[in-house]
Amino acid sequence: MQKNVIVTGGNGFLGRHVVAELRGRGATRVLTPAKAEYDLCYADHVHRLLDDHDPDLVIHLAAAVGGIGANQKNPGRFFYENAVMGLNLLEAARKFEVPKVVTIGTVCSYPKFAKVPFVEDDLWNGYPEETNAPYGLAKKMVMVMCRAYREQYGCDFVHLVMANLYGPGDDFDLETSHTIPALIRKMIAAKESSATEIEVWGTGTPSREFLYAADAAEGIVTAAEQYDSSEPVNLGTGREVTIKELAGMIRAATGFEGEFRWNPERPDGQPRRALDTSRAREAFGFVATTSLEDGLAKTVEWYLANRG
Question: Which is nearest to 255 in space by CA: 165, 189, 168, 210?
């Protein structure tokens, strides 16, 4: 309760859920630094952040991220910013002897044709899916640095690999959003305008795994408390659904009664995604508790209450 905790990206989508989880467990000294004051792309800013606040724990969530469209438009920026923020933070944490750092990775780091479900030991068995590769590889470099610094310097740095996240507070901007918020926004707009169809990217055949953000926050904070190893850990549900199945579930949650016009000229992304979540369960007892149906209903409810 009395530890100083820094949550980078703490004012973002996942960050707000992690801060709520920390405070729900009694943490009273949680800092969520703003980019305007501490830009993690600059080493001197990171040094100043740690010097100013002397953290006992850093949870590194800050990221340059978006859906397939955003990744296609920003491959260079997504690679550079995600890599350099992580590298700057871990090097500064080593110098300032921060007792623990939790870094957050992505399912995009897995090889394009990895065996499903994805097991952590398979992270290096191929190249990631091309549209997300720069982002996924940048996060993987942070994972490598966590292991290297643990081996050479004894740093307590751990790396968690996230399934696709969704939930209240997600990004619903169609230019940058991921699949679930984009489909929710499109279907509600279509329902309210009495449109008879919406466009959905791709063919609908790829599969994904979706983790409710509040569940992800629970896993992250539990790992911060209990996990101490160089081995990366998947956080997810282990449930694989196709995009066609997902679209049908969102149709039910929104009440949209129209049709889907699939656009195969838009990219499908990785063919399949689903995580083996046994390591998280065995290492620190994490099991996601929110079903996709319930999470979608809560996300739709939040969007209706909070849209601009």
Answer: 189
Q: Is the alpha carbon torsion for 283, 6, 19, 106 positive or negative?
A: negative
Hunting for tokens 């640095």 — which residue is that? 145
- Residues 107 and 275 sit within 8 Å (Cβ to Cβ): yes
Give the pairing type, strands 57-60 and 30-31: unpaired
CA pair distance 103, 160, nearest whole angstrom: 6
Q: Which of 38, 110, 135, 212 is catalytic?
A: 135
110 labelled catalytic: no
Domains and CATH numbers, the chain: 5-168+209-240+271-288 (3.40.50.720)
CA–CA separation, 225 vs 164, rounded Å? Answer: 23
- pLDDT per residue of the chain (308 residues) written in tens, 0 to 9: 679 999 999 999 999 999 999 999 999 999 999 999 999 999 999 999 999 999 999 999 999 988 888 889 999 999 999 999 999 999 999 999 999 999 999 999 999 999 999 999 999 999 999 999 999 999 999 999 999 999 999 999 999 999 999 999 999 998 888 999 999 999 999 999 999 999 999 999 999 999 999 999 999 999 999 999 999 999 999 999 999 999 999 999 999 999 999 999 988 889 999 999 999 999 999 999 999 999 999 999 999 999 97
Q: 21-46 burial string, b = 16+ CB within 10 Å, else e?
A: bbeeeebeebbbbeeeebbbbeeebb
